[in-house]
What we know:
The chain is an alpha+beta fold. It has helices at 3-31, 116-146, 151-165, 169-184, 188-213, 217-225, 230-260, 272-283, 286-317, and strands at 46-54, 59-67, 70-77, 82-88, 99-100, 105-114. 63% of the residues lie in helices and 14% in strands. The radius of gyration is 29 Å and the shape is extended.
Amino acid sequence: MTDQRQDFLWKLLLAAVLILAAAGIWGATKSIDYTWRWQRVPQYFFYHAEELHKAPADGKVIDLVREGGSTVVVFQSATSEILRVPVAGDSVRVAPGEELFEGDLLGSTSRWKVGPLLQGLWVTIWISFLSGILGLAIGLCTGLCRISRNPALRGLAVTYVELIRGTPLLVQIFIFYFFIGTVLNLDRMVAGVGALAVFAGAYVAEIVRAGIQSIPRGQMEAARSLGMTVPQAMRHIILPQAFKRTLPPLAGQFISLIKDSSLVSVIAITDLTKSGREVITSSFATFEIWFVVAAMYLILTSVLSQVIFWMERRLAISD
C-alpha cells in the first residue's frame, strides 16, 4: 500500500471520528429535547442600537430641516436658546410650532454597536496581554534570583515559586481581591491583573531558570575571559540563547494564561466568560453561547500559537 493511500485512509478515519462526535452531540441534545437557537447569537457580537433624543427643556419646535437621510429638529427653549437636534428622517415625533415639555420625545437615531461577547473578548485580550508582560518581567527577575549565589535572593525566589505553584489560582485571585485589594484599595481590574501576573511569573521563572542552566557554562567563562561582567555576559550572551530555547514553553504558559484569565470573572470582571454567562441569562441559548465562547478562546490561543511559531522560525534563521 502506497504512502499516499495510507494517508488518505487515515484522513478518512479522522473525518469519521469527527462526524461521530458531531452525531453524538446532536443525539445528546435530542435526548433532552433541546431546541437550538443559533439565530439569537449574532446580535451579541454586533447590534443595531436605537438612541432616543428628547427635549432638553420646555420650549417649542421652530422648524424641521431635511439634511440627506436625517432631519434636524430646530428647538427653541423657554429661555430663547436655539438647539439643533439631528434625528433619523423616519423617526421624527414632532411638528413645527409644537409646544413641548422637557423630556418629550423628538425622534431617534440608530447605529451599530459592539455586542457583549466582543467587549468581553477585548477585556480578556488586554488582561491576558498585560498579565503576560508583567508575568514575564516578574519571571525573568525571579529566574535570575533562582540561580543567584546570594542565599537571600535564592531563598526568596524559591519561596515565591513554591508558594504560588502550591496554591490554586482561584484562591490567589480571592486573596488579591479581598485582602490585598482591600488593604491597598485596589480596583478589581488591578487585583485581577496582579493575581494573574504573579501566578504566571512563578511558572515563567522556572522556565527562565531552566533555559539559562541549559546554556553550557563554557559560554559564561568565555564571556568573562573577554572582560565582560556577569550582567553583560547575561544580557549579550546567555539570555538571547536562553530565550530561543524557552520560547515554546513560554508560549504554552501564555496560552494557559489566556485560558486561566476566565477565573477573574469570579471577582465581577466582565471578561469573555462573564459576558457569556450574562448573555445566557437573556438569550436562554445556553449550549450555543458556551460553544461560541469556547470557539472564541480557541481562535485567540490559535492565533497566539501561530505568532509564536512564526517567531521560532524567524529566530531559527540566525542559528
